[in-house]
Amino acid sequence: MDDENEFPTESTEPSSTPGVRITALNGATIIVRTDLATRLTTLDLEDPEGVLVASRVLGGEDLQRLVDALTVASEQSQTSDVPVVVDVSEVIGRD
After folding, report:
1. Between 34 and which of 15, 28, 41, 55 could a Cys-Cys bridge form, CB atoms 3.0 to 4.6 Å apart?
2. Class of domain 3-89
3. What is the Cα–Cα distance from 41 to 36, expressed in whole angstroms?
4. Neighbour tally for 7: CB within 10 Å
5. Nearest to 33 by CA among 45, 42, 25, 24
6. Alpha-carbon gap, residue 15 to 17, rounded angstroms
7. For the segment 40-67, what is each residue's pLDDT rounded down to a tens digit?
8. Which conformational region is residue 25 in: left (phi greater than 0), alpha (psi within -120 to 50 degrees), or beta?
9. Do residues 31 and 20 lie in contact, with contact meaning Cβ atoms separated by under 8 Å?
């Protein structure tokens, strides 16, 4: 992962869907966001051109495992000169 930013307030995302964007080295972007009205958290995948290619709803346990994996990856990236890889399908146990 090479970028992790909270959506800025001027983002084109609706205000009811705050989230985090993580851009992979291959240019794909993972977006994790929670709809405040429904309290559902989704994991979306965009290709390098910004086209949505996959989306799934995450359960609470999936979300916690993802947060834990990203926390570890962030810590590893601070001390490593090589890219840190997080296989999201392994973390949440799905393809």
Report:
1. 41
2. alpha beta
3. 9
4. 16
5. 42
6. 5
7. 899 999 999 999 999 999 988 998 998 8
8. alpha
9. yes
- Name the one residue in this structure whose structure tokens are 């051109």: 49
CA distance 21 to 7: 7
- 6-46 pLDDT per residue, tens: 433 334 444 456 688 888 888 999 999 988 888 889 999 99
DSSP 81: S
Farthest CA pair distance, the chain? 41
Cα four-point dihedral sign 20, 64, 70, 78: positive
- What is this structure's pTM? 0.66
Domain coordinates of the chain in residue numbers?
3-89
How far apart are the C-alpha atoms of 89 and 60, rounded to whole Å? 16
* Paired tokens of 78: 């601070």
Q: Which residue from 37, 36, 38, 32 is spatially nearest to 66, judged by alpha carbons?
A: 32
Alpha-helical (H) ranges within the chain are 60-79, 88-92
